[in-house]
Design goal:
single chain, alpha/beta, 5-stranded mixed sheet, disordered N terminus
Amino acid sequence: MKNEEHSKEHREGRGHDLLAKVLVIGDGGVGKTALITRFTEDRFLVSYTATIGVDFKSRVVASGDKLVKMQIWDTAGQERFKNITQAYYRGATGILLAFSLTDRPSFTNIEKWIGQIDEHAAKECIRVLVGTKVDSVSDRVIIRG
């Protein structure tokens, strides 16, 4: 009973029980911002605008009887922002590694991004590989093998 009361107090005061920091990384132009916007705002971005440095969005989701506030950090994929984005690995609960199914180098570069995670994130940080632009069937260069 006390846990339920404690949970209710958190929800009334902060709107969530738990906080999860999720970092989305990958090469520029793979669709990280579109993926995040679709998840947090339920809308699809058609136009492309490069992220400068780091952007942030959040969404509260239910997990069992808990409300989890997901802080989703959208990182710039360009090499020139590498030093800025490295600091955001610290404290991440999970990391989405995004690549485009229409861009083979973005898939090949996943190895480089894994190296960044190994160097800057906690060992227990959850990693998820996400292929984007699945709807661009005619432009697809990454095929299931």
